[in-house]
Predict the 3D structure of the following.
Amino acid sequence: MIFSQDHYAKTRLIRNQLLWIAFCVLFSVCVYPQSNLLLNADFENGFSSWTILKGANRVNLDSKSGSYALSAPSNSGAEQTIAGLTPNTTYLLAGWLKSSNSSPVSLGVKLYGGNELSNETTSTVYKQLTVKFTTGPSSTKATIYTYNPSSGSNTMNVDDLSL
């Protein structure tokens, strides 16, 4: 099969465009690295940076990854206030949660300059939940929480949170 010079020129152009796109993606990741704004988001370092609500505990079993997870009996959980956020900026909160008996457990955000937002699951295996929120015009803080509102014998496990 014989190719014309026009074909080779188009092939070079496409190759160069793909290389440019790859360079731009790599450069943006290097210059603007994504980091987790939550501290001790995997509970590997105890409860540093977290406020524990009504009996939640760190357990060395049944984690999503690593060695530890948060375990919260009925009507308990944990929260962390994040400072240094940028006003009028959209953030994505994510975390892995599960419920021991299919009662709802939740991941949420409050005090960020908008209405409290949360997402819940009744899954008995770890499920990733996300909550997208935009800080208010003068808001530089947000409180991230995970909560087990059950009044029964349900236990919530939480691991690998990110913001």
